[in-house]
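Lecture notes, part 5. Sequence design as translation. It can be helpful to think of inverse folding as translation between two languages: the language of shapes and the language of residues. The source text, in structure tokens, appears below.
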């Protein structure tokens, strides 16, 4: 199985083809790579309501059921993930505050 073409969209950070899915756990939106990936750790399925649902493939439920396909969450493959808040190193202190006045005796 593959996602239907009308689900296809592009990541606005890296423009990779992705599909938006709802997690079967809590209904949150999650971007998943549009191309099925046998090494992915999630399984995507098309719901009766026409939406895509994603669930994590766990050791307890490793089997891919009929109608599902295995894929990789886009967070795992995106080359430019959202910036982290704690990475603040880009802030340069303006070092223009030189000591006023000539330094001479
Ligand atoms: Zn991306």
């Amino acid at each position: 199985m593959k996602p239907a073409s009308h689900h296809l969209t592009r990541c606005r950070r890296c423009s990779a083809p992705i599909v938006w899915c709802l997690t079967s756990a809590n209904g949150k939106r999650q971007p998943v790579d549009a191309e099925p990936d046998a090494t992915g750790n999630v399984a995507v399925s098309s719901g009766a309501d026409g939406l895509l649902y994603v669930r994590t493939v766990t050791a307890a439920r490793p089997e891919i059921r009929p109608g599902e396909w295995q894929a990789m969450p886009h967070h795992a493959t995106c080359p430019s993930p959202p910036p982290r808040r704690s990475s603040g190193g880009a802030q340069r202190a303006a070092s223009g505050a030189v000591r006023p006045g000539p330094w001479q005796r």
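The translated text above is only one of many valid answers, since several sequences can fold into similar shapes. Helices lie at 74-77.
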